[in-house]
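Duplicate of #3305? Posting structure anyway:
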Protein backbone atom coordinates (compact mmCIF):
# COMPACT_ATOMS: atom_id res chain seq x y z
CA UNK A 1 0.00 0.00 0.00
CA UNK A 2 1.37 3.40 -0.95
CA UNK A 3 1.01 6.42 1.30
CA UNK A 4 0.72 9.92 -0.11
CA UNK A 5 2.25 12.99 1.56
CA UNK A 6 -1.28 14.26 2.14
CA UNK A 7 -2.04 11.19 4.27
CA UNK A 8 0.70 11.78 6.85
CA UNK A 9 -1.07 14.61 8.68
CA UNK A 10 -4.22 12.48 8.89
CA UNK A 11 -2.33 9.39 10.07
CA UNK A 12 -0.04 11.19 12.52
CA UNK A 13 -1.87 14.28 13.83
CA UNK A 14 0.47 14.53 16.84
CA UNK A 15 3.49 15.16 14.60
CA UNK A 16 1.87 17.93 12.58
CA UNK A 17 0.43 20.91 14.47
CA UNK A 18 -2.52 22.66 12.82
CA UNK A 19 -1.55 25.35 10.33
CA UNK A 20 -2.15 28.94 11.32
CA UNK A 21 -4.84 30.51 9.16
CA UNK A 22 -4.80 34.30 9.35
CA UNK A 23 -8.17 35.88 10.04
CA UNK A 24 -9.57 37.71 7.05
CA UNK A 25 -11.23 40.99 7.87
CA UNK A 26 -13.77 42.40 5.44
CA UNK A 27 -12.57 45.46 3.55
CA UNK A 28 -15.98 47.14 3.48
CA UNK A 29 -18.82 47.16 5.91
CA UNK A 30 -22.10 45.47 5.07
CA UNK A 31 -24.69 47.94 3.75
CA UNK A 32 -27.27 49.15 6.21
CA UNK A 33 -30.78 50.49 5.54
CA UNK A 34 -29.57 54.07 6.10
CA UNK A 35 -26.72 53.59 3.65
CA UNK A 36 -29.03 52.23 0.94
CA UNK A 37 -31.56 55.03 1.50
CA UNK A 38 -28.79 57.64 1.20
CA UNK A 39 -27.54 55.97 -1.99
CA UNK A 40 -31.03 55.98 -3.53
CA UNK A 41 -31.48 59.66 -2.56
CA UNK A 42 -28.25 60.49 -4.40
CA UNK A 43 -29.62 59.00 -7.62
CA UNK A 44 -28.57 55.41 -7.23
CA UNK A 45 -30.94 52.85 -8.61
CA UNK A 46 -31.33 49.19 -9.12
CA UNK A 47 -30.23 47.16 -12.12
CA UNK A 48 -31.68 48.24 -15.46
CA UNK A 49 -34.49 46.10 -16.86
CA UNK A 50 -33.43 43.10 -18.86
CA UNK A 51 -32.98 43.54 -22.58
CA UNK A 52 -35.72 42.10 -24.78
CA UNK A 53 -35.09 38.59 -26.02
CA UNK A 54 -34.15 38.45 -29.68
CA UNK A 55 -34.64 35.37 -31.77
CA UNK A 56 -32.26 34.29 -34.48
CA UNK A 57 -33.54 34.81 -38.01
CA UNK A 58 -34.86 31.82 -39.87
CA UNK A 59 -32.06 30.15 -41.78
CA UNK A 60 -32.58 29.46 -45.47
CA UNK A 61 -29.89 27.21 -46.92
CA UNK A 62 -28.42 28.27 -50.24
CA UNK A 63 -29.19 24.91 -51.85
CA UNK A 64 -31.01 21.77 -50.77
CA UNK A 65 -31.80 20.85 -47.24
CA UNK A 66 -29.35 20.40 -44.41
CA UNK A 67 -30.17 16.70 -44.14
CA UNK A 68 -29.23 16.17 -47.78
CA UNK A 69 -25.87 17.85 -47.26
CA UNK A 70 -25.24 15.78 -44.14
CA UNK A 71 -26.06 12.55 -45.98
CA UNK A 72 -23.72 13.51 -48.82
CA UNK A 73 -20.91 14.37 -46.38
CA UNK A 74 -21.48 11.11 -44.50
CA UNK A 75 -21.32 9.08 -47.69
CA UNK A 76 -18.09 10.76 -48.72
CA UNK A 77 -16.58 10.28 -45.26
CA UNK A 78 -17.61 6.61 -45.21
CA UNK A 79 -16.14 5.81 -48.63
CA UNK A 80 -12.91 7.83 -48.29
CA UNK A 81 -10.96 5.09 -46.41
CA UNK A 82 -12.05 2.47 -48.96
CA UNK A 83 -10.92 4.63 -51.89
CA UNK A 84 -7.60 5.36 -50.17
CA UNK A 85 -7.04 1.64 -49.52
CA UNK A 86 -7.75 0.69 -53.12
CA UNK A 87 -5.46 3.47 -54.36
CA UNK A 88 -2.60 2.29 -52.13
CA UNK A 89 -3.08 -1.36 -53.10
CA UNK A 90 -3.24 -0.44 -56.77
CA UNK A 91 -0.05 1.60 -56.52
CA UNK A 92 1.81 -1.26 -54.85
CA UNK A 93 0.55 -3.92 -57.25
CA UNK A 94 0.88 -1.89 -60.44
CA UNK A 95 3.51 -3.48 -62.66
CA UNK A 96 6.60 -1.42 -63.18
CA UNK A 97 6.52 0.34 -66.51
CA UNK A 98 9.81 -0.14 -68.37
CA UNK A 99 11.51 3.01 -69.60
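Output from current build:
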Amino acid sequence: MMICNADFDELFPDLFPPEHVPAVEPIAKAPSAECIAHWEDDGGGHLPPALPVRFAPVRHPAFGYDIERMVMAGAIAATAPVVATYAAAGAMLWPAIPD
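Confirmed duplicate; merging threads. Residues 66-93 form the longest helix (28 residues). The CA atoms of residues 71 and 77 lie 10 Å apart.
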